[in-house]
Amino acid sequence: MAHQNKSRAGHSAAGHSIDDEKVELLLGNVLRLGVILAALLTITGASMLLIANGNRPGRQLIAGSGEFSRSALFHGIAHGDGNAIIMLGLMVLFATPVLRVAGMIVGFLRERDWLYAAISCAVLAILIAGICFAA
Amino acid sequence: MSAILLLSLILTGSVAAGLLGSLTGLGGGALLVPMLVLLFKFDIHHAMGASLVSVVATSSGAAIAFLREGYSNIRIGIFLEMATTLGALCGAWATHILPTHIVAIIFGLVLLTSAALGARQHHDAEQSPPQGLAKRLRLFGTYPTRQGPSAYAATHIAGGFSIMYCAGVLSGLLGIGSGVVKVLAMDRAMRLPFKVSTTTSNFMIGVTAAASSGIYYRHGYLNPALDFPVMLGVLAGALLGARLLSRAPVRALRILFTVVIAVMAVEMIYQGAAGRL
Q1: Cα angle at A30 between A29 and A34, to 5 degrees?
Q2: What is the pLDDT of residue B3?
Q3: DSSP labels for B11-65?
Q4: Mean pLDDT across chain B
Q5: Nearest residue in chain A measured CA to CA from B234
Q6: Which of B36, B74, B142 should be substituted to probe chain A, the one whose Cβ sees the most A Cβ atoms within 10 Å?
Q7: B21 vs chain A: nearest CA distance in angstroms?
Q8: How many residue pairs bridge chain A and chain B with CB atoms within 8 Å of each other?
Q9: Exposure winner among A110, B14, B18, B268, fewest CB in 10 A?
Q10: Which ipTM score applies to this complex?
């Protein structure tokens, strides 16, 4: 596709080569799987939370569901705490766009588009910096 | 109110917010945060955290549908993400420092502006071959139209990039996707076709929101028990909205919802100014 377009001055390689599309569709599927996994985790965690606390006042439940230190989170996940498992689901969800950007780096490298591989790396670096603020 | 009942109400409200957000093009967060704050009386930071979760869910969940259509431009998207993610970090940092009633007032003002911008008519700009920076950065492409593939190229890159930074700040500051501002940067400033702008924006909002997530987690804005009904509800509503979009009387709905959103925005500003939030 890219070759056909090259004759049209200025509008060559329109950013939608066949390879591009394959990588993008693969990434789209990865994203969807990530969202499904996140939804399953939150539903599991929520069921556990509600089985244990379904009749407690709702506001109390939400107020008690607050902040997690990292160690409390790991401990909670290991011991089947509903809140911690929902939080794990949220983390899987937040990881999906990060994964997408990482996948784009691979895609651009395969196309030997060094400029856009570098741009994607810069975005990934900012995202990782943001994640580091959590700790 | 028992936990099950309260969470069911939040779930129902979130489906509605996701549905209306996708039909109006304003995104789920626009209605979700005022609903959680004004109706359910939740802390605005927790509402923003829940909204941020729903933004990522909608963006990632709908990505495949948009990719298949061939409208979104990943180069333009990732290039502009440098500005939005950086902005989001600054915004998320600022939201922890600002008093909550100020955040509420800013939210109301942004909502009001978004509603006004969302209601405007859009005409695609005349396209010309890429020049200067757009050519060097390859910020151009083709998109499918009824007459076959149509070429487009970005203009005013610096202006678009700056607006995108602001969109990122708003996203981090308010926990929204700020898709309206992103579309504005692309179709108005950079003169990209509307369809390319909206689909590329959908890809971008998830990445932008993910940038703020660490800071939101650290400050305890992410509340598992509140976030799960919101995430599932908004996602369901948004996917339903995408299906309905071709059949629903979109124009009439848009006017109705724009009014609803404007009322909520004014209420947010009023409550914020009165110091009640």
Answers
A1: 115
A2: 85
A3: HHHHHHHHHHHHHHTS-THHHHHHIIIIIS---HHHHHHHHHHHHHHHHHHHHHH
A4: 89
A5: A39
A6: B74
A7: 19
A8: 219
A9: A110
A10: 0.91
